[in-house]
Amino acid sequence: MASQGFEYMVDWKKPVSSPSRKRAAQVRYYYGSDEARLVAVVRTKLDEDVREIELARTPPHELKSAHLLGRLRWDGESMVLLEPKRKGSEPISSTAVLKVPLD
Length: 103
What we know:
Number of domains: 1
Strand order of the largest sheet: 1-2-3-4
Number of helices: 1
Mean pLDDT: 78
Structural class: mainly beta
Strand content: over 45%
Helix content: under 10%
Low-confidence stretches: 89-95
Radius of gyration: 15 Å
Largest sheet: 4 strands, antiparallel
Number of strands: 7
């Protein structure tokens, strides 16, 4: 059977506002036949200046990327952090947090 090219797009959870509420960030998950991609989408209050920053690429299987879909939060006005899911009470390693500088 020939591989059919397809890609689904899902916005992961609700957008998270920056501390000043001038920007909002959200994780977008693209799932295709060849790969899965996580992208941070940053918008201004009026949906202006939309910016997409790629966070990760994985093989197209939920088990390869599901652990990355965790909590999105702001670190000041110019940095977005994506913290991976925890297993039980296991602490998050600082090297596992995806940091996205915006400026």
